[in-house]
Amino acid sequence: MIWPTAQEYSEAVQNPRLNFSDAELKAGQLELTPLGLPRAISGNFVTVFRMQCEQRDLAVRCFLRNVTDQQQRYTAISQHLARVKLPYTVYFEFLSEGILVQGQWYPILKMAWVTGELLDKFIEKNLYNSVILQDLAVRWVTLIETLKDAEIAHGDLQHGNILIVDNDFKLVDYDGMLVPRLFQKSCSEIGHGNYQHPHRTARDFWSDIDDFSAWVIYIALISFSIEPQLWERVGAGEDFLLLHKGDFANPDASATLALLSQHSDAYIQALATEFKQLLRSKRISQVPSLDNQIISSLNPHSANFSAAAHTSDSVKGWWVDYIKDSQPTQSPLTSIKSTSDKAELQSTSGAGFATPPATFQGNSKQIKTFGRKSQTGSRTVAEIMSNPSKGQRSIREELRPVGLFIAVFGLFIVVMISFLPPNKSPSPTESTPIERLPALPEPKIFRDNLRHGSLGPEMVWLPAGRFQMGDIQGGGDDDEQPVHWVPIERFAMGRYEVTVGEFRQFVAATGYKTVAEKKGNCWGRAGSDSGRNWRNPEFSQNDNSPVVCVSWDDATAYAVWLSQETCQQYCLPTEAQWEYAARAGTETKYWWGNEVGSNQANCWNSTCGDRFKYTAPVGSFAPNPFDLFDTVGNVWEWTCSEYENKYSGKETQCLSKESGSLRVVRGGAWDNGQKFVRVPDRNRYSQDYRNDFVGFRLVRLSSGRLVPGSYTGYINFAPKGL
Question: Architecture of 445-701 per CATH?
Answer without folding.
Answer: Alpha-Beta Complex (3.90)
